[in-house]
């Protein structure tokens, strides 16, 4: 009888241990101790009138239980977000907030963004694990102040202009806007960090009466704009008619045979791809390659005019006619200059080589940056004498003229770009234009030319 009771107690003990083990097996995952993770999609240092914030909160254990976001400034506190059911059980929540500090009663100055998150763990007597993260931010809802130091600015259609101005917040982004086109400004005077300049263009294809204004945006996203006193001198460009035939189109296509898509079978289809699609692709690549620049002006007086007689001008419109019908159009965005075959091509000013390689219709091409968004392009070269990253001096030979790309005769295609936009090259080698449109701007503002410091 005693042996039977012992066996029964043993069975009960085993059952108890099994139940305890099963309970522990079930409960243990619910007691995980890994707290939620909190991160901002992008760093946040300033809050403007209206700021957007993307918050990422994750929990790889039992999932999220709640998320709360509060903006605190001295005795003022405003809850921006308090979510429970929306994030319940989620391993990751991406939350987007629009923050308008003034509507919350906040003032200019320092504030703290407090982000709290809890998970569904059974730890801490079912309260779970919790994470609190604080981000120090500056409430700034006041837009920067702009002031122009330039009087009336004259600019030609397809030409360039220069604005000199001040921005009271030195770390603001700034520049000139022409219609929807944005030009980036520079800060080349270290002793006067609030004084800026911006070269801008009135593109040859822009319609009349484009609004031209200064713009600035501070780190909090507050924006300011100020109309510029600009007079645009309108000019018409000439139109050339080029008659096409199969022999001409096949000759052009042969140069790009390895690039033309296989579905372009006819001579016309091949020519249209080169003259339109490839041209557009090349111009977009030139735009990007010419934009990296320096804060200082690396050129002086004028750009040196390349050797050669003019063969085609900037802005020339070209109509391509086949069987008395216009089948394609293009705009010539530079100056064609012909000297002698394989003539030395020299840098028109000191600069940095940003590109030195094939560029489709422009053939072998060199792009030089001369500072403050000004760049020059040398196309159709038969030989390159520099490589990307080289520093070059005014008058240094950078290549030899040729007939690569879409050129049908040996010549140099020379372009000037301002912040990636093609402009009239002849302006830049004209001392009168430089005097009236560049040097006068510095004189009006009482500033020296923004040349590099000694040794740079």
From TrEMBL:
A Pfam family: Peptidase_M23
Keywords carried by this UniProt record: Membrane, Signal, Transmembrane, Transmembrane helix
M23ase beta-sheet core domain mapped to chain residues: 331-425
Gene3D superfamilies: Glucose Permease (Domain IIA)
Matches recorded under CDD domains: M23_peptidase (cd12797)
GO-annotated molecular function: metalloendopeptidase activity
Entry annotated with the keyword Ribonucleoprotein: no
InterPro entries linked to this entry: Cell_wall_metabolism_enzyme, Dup_hybrid_motif, M23ase_b-sheet_dom
UniProt superkingdom: Bacteria
Transmembrane annotation, as ranges: 7-28
Protein name: Peptidase M24
Classification of source organism: Bacteria, Pseudomonadati, Thermodesulfobacteriota, Desulfarculia, Desulfarculales
């Amino acid at each position: 009888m005693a042996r039977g009771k012992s066996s029964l107690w043993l069975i009960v003990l085993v059952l108890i241990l099994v139940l305890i083990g099963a309970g522990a097996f079930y409960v243990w995952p619910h007691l995980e101790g890994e707290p939620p993770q909190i991160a901002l999609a992008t760093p946040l240092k300033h809050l403007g009138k209206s700021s957007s914030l993307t918050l990422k909160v994750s929990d790889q254990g039992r999932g999220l239980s709640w998320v709360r976001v509060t903006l605190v400034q001295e005795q003022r506190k405003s809850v921006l977000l308090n979510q429970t059911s929306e994030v319940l059980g989620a391993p990751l929540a991406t939350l987007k907030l629009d923050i308008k500090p003034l509507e919350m009663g906040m003032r200019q100055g320092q504030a703290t963004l407090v982000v709290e998150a809890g998970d569904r763990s059974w730890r801490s007597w079912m309260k779970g694990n919790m994470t609190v993260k604080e981000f120090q931010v500056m409430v700034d809802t006041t837009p920067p102040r702009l002031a122009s130091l330039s009087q009336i600015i004259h600019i030609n259609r397809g030409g360039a202009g220069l604005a000199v101005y001040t921005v009271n917040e030195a770390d603001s982004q700034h520049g000139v806007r022409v219609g929807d086109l944005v030009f980036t400004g520079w800060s080349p005077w270290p002793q006067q960090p609030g004084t800026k300049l911006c070269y801008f263009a009135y593109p040859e294809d822009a319609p009349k009466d484009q609004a031209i204004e200064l713009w600035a945006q501070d780190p909090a996203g507050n924006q300011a704009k100020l109309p510029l006193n600009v007079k645009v001198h309108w000019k018409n460009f000439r139109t050339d008619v080029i008659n096409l035939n199969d022999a001409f189109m096949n000759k052009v296509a042969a140069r790009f045979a390895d690039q033309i898509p296989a579905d372009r079978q006819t001579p016309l289809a091949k020519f249209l791809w080169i003259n339109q699609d490839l041209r557009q692709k090349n111009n977009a690549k030139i735009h990007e390659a010419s934009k990296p620049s320096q804060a200082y002006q690396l050129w002086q007086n004028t750009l040196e005019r390349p050797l050669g007689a003019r063969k085609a001008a900037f802005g020339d419109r070209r109509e391509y006619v086949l069987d008395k019908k216009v089948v394609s159009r293009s705009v010539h965005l530079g100056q064609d200059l012909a000297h002698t075959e394989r003539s030395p091509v020299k840098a028109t000013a000191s600069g940095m080589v940003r590109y030195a390689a094939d560029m489709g219709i422009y053939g072998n091409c060199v792009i030089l940056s001369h500072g403050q968004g000004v760049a020059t392009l040398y196309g159709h070269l038969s030989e390159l004498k520099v490589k990307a990253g080289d520093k070059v001096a005014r008058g240094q030979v950078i290549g030899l003229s040729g007939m690569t790309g879409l050129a049908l005769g040996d010549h140099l295609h020379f372009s000037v770009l301002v912040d990636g936009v093609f402009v009239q090259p002849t302006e830049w080698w004209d001392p009168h234009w430089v005097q009236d449109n560049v040097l006068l701007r510095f004189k009006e503002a009482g500033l020296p030319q923004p040349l590099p410091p000694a040794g740079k």
